[in-house]
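An instance follows:
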Amino acid sequence: MTTTNSQAFSAYAASSRLTASPRDVLASVHEELYRAIGSAKFAHEQGRLDQMCRHAMRAIQILTVLSTSLDFSAAGPDGKTLRGFYQYVLDSMVRASRRKDVSSSYQIVLDLLRPFCKE
């Protein structure tokens, strides 16, 4: 694919997200987060630690943005709970790298995130 075609496709994909509701956008972000953690878990199980680290870093970046950039006060009491949830998941991801059984730590996080995804 040429650079121009790639840029056009990216612009088209971005434009479809502009009409999505905030809830749909957040669900898409959660799905990307879920994929990143699932990929990190799979890479760890395959012994591909470089890939695991790359996927885990992607998940940590998403969680950092979520926990620091959303207007949690706009959601009222639920916003405080959601912020705490993101912080807990972020802390769990950081701790997972220090544990003996990384895969089970990632699975716990995946189980927590599953209800936040569309699929």
Notes: Helices lie at 3-18, 22-45, 49-69, 77-96, 102-113.
